[in-house]
Amino acid sequence: MTRQRTLAEPFRIKMVEPVRMTTPEYRKQILRNAGYNPFLLRSDDVYIDLLTDSGTSAMSDRQWSAMLLGDESYAGASSWEKLETEVKDLTGMHYVLPTHQGRAAERILYGQLGGKGKVFVSNTHFDTTRANIEFTGATAFDCMSDESLDIDLELPFKGDMDIAQARQYILQYGPENVAAIVLTVTNNSAGGQPVSMANARQVRALCDEFGILLVLDGCRIAENAYFIKHREANYSDKSFREIAQEMLSISDAFIMSAKKDALVNMGGLLVLRDKKLAEKCTNLLIISEGFATYGGLSGRDMEAMTVGLQEVFDMDYLHYRIKSTEYLGKHLQEKGVPLVKPFGGHAIYIDAKNFYDHIPVHEFPGQALVCDLYEQGAIRCVEVGSVMFGKYDAQGNHIAPKSELVRLAIPRRVYTQSHIDYVIDVFDDIIENKHQSTGFKITYEPPFLRHFTATFQRL
Ligand code: F0G
What is the DSSP string of 237-256? Predict the structure, then answer.
């Protein structure tokens, strides 16, 4: 086989952060102490951290230098003015509310729109989105086609919303009870798959037909724009930013966890077109996050975010970003690891139900793989399956979600190709030992978002 040409990083390294390798014996012991939940590990004990792409980006020299210009005034800071200008230009929306991260924007908006009897419809609600909606007493429905949920099927836009299902929910609950349609781009919980512009337009038409608010949950909107440019007809000549702007132009509201495509370690945005809704949300913002011109962020955070929002649409950056994720996917696929296809933008998802087919779903095959990757390679990642989304019926029996995935999320601009090659090598050991792996039972779980703090026992 001819070797693939090296995908060289479009940056060079100016500052280094040492990482430490530990022994498998040590890792076995501390993982047991952490109740087999990698969220409860110390990051110093992790060699390659693929837990999330959220807040884990390396900032550029331009971002770091912008931070020195941070205006830390309580009201009307120049750092805020720069951020507001940038976000207005990107979104075409008038009301920009800064928040400390995405879920704060979710809490404010869905706290305002939600409540008992209200319904939200999405392609797939991310877990904090669903939790914030359900916390208000409202109900959240995901609308994905069987084709999109088929993890082996290679389709260009498997993040798309199933319009027929969405329509059915609207008719079933009554349009007056549908608080919003939330379009998540890329569709994180469904494998980081992109949403097409054509689908966004269909969602817009559905919202217009019934008079429903369209919220774009767009924390990975630049990555989504990359896929549209390369996969959807008539977009190859548009810039990534123009594509994102087009999708925003048909939305009523934009929620962004800036910890992803704004290339910062902390921050979020709630951007609205409607004045009345913006006023109500601003009140909640001031009560809980901070004054309207900083919303829980320091001036330097806002400076870094402004620059990050420009850098993320750079052609070399986005090409490297998507291709380096694909590099990991291709090599794992060559080893026969079953993966969600096509590869998503920010992560590679392993089909753990298929890979660890000797472990039944109620014994959490995804969690078993997550723990094995840590014990064998000091790699940290997250289960996206029964631990994250499993429920119980009235008799207390486990109701499994449709898939048992493990997500290897790639931080932006952090790991080089040799780090990723290391991850690929660890899979040789995982494959060799996979039949020795055993499942888990839960020993503790909280009522919401249990994957963060649940503890387990190996069976
Ligand atoms: N929406 C989506 C689609 C997300 O992926 C996330 C976070 C949020 C909202 C919430 O944003 O973390 O800033 O409060 N996703 C992270 C992840 C946590 O690992 O996928 P936040």
Answer: TS-HHHHHHHHHHT-SEEEE
Residue of minimum CA distance from atom 4 in ligand 1? 126
Q: What is the token pair recorded at 258?
A: 């800036």
Q: Is the CB of residue 54 below 6 angstroms from any atom belonging to ligand 1?
A: yes
pLDDT digit string, tens, across residues 124-163: 999 899 999 999 999 999 999 999 988 889 999 999 999 9
Side-chain half-sphere of 350: how many Cα atoms within 13 Å?
30
Please name each of the domains of the chain with its CATH number: 24-53+314-458 (3.90.1150.10), 61-311 (3.40.640.10)
CA of 29 relative to ligand 1 center, distance in Å? 30
Interval 219-276: pLDDT, tens? 999 999 999 999 999 999 999 999 999 999 999 999 999 999 999 999 999 999 999 9
Q: Please tell me the distance from the alpha carbon of residue 42 to that of residue 318, in angstroms, as a whole number.
A: 31
Helix runs in 23-162, H state only:
24-33, 61-67, 78-91, 102-113, 127-135, 146-149
- Residue at token pair 């912008």: 66
382 in Cβ contact with 452 (< 8 Å): no
State the burial class of residue 159 (Cβ atoms within 10 Å of its Cβ: 0-12, 13-18, 19+): buried
Q: Which pair of tokens denotes residue 30?
A: 């501390």
Compute the distance from residue 102 Cα to the ligand 1 centre, in Å: 6
pLDDT of residue 3: 63
Say yes or no: CB of residue 217 within 6 Å of ligand 1.
Answer: yes
- Closest atom of ligand 1 to CA, residue 267: 13
How far is CA 433 from its chain centroid? 30
CB distance 193 to ligand 1 below 6 Å? no
The answer, yes or no, to whether any atom of ligand 1 lies below 6 A from the CB of 341, is no
Q: Is the CB of 57 under 6 A from ligand 1?
A: no
Site to substitute for ligand 1 among 185, 260, 261, 265, most atoms within 8 A of C-beta: 260
CA-nearest residue for atom 1, ligand 1, is 126
Cross-strand partners of 187: 193
Q: Whose CA is nearest to atom 15 of ligand 1?
A: 54
Q: Which residues of the chain have pLDDT under 50?
A: none
pLDDT value of position 389:
87
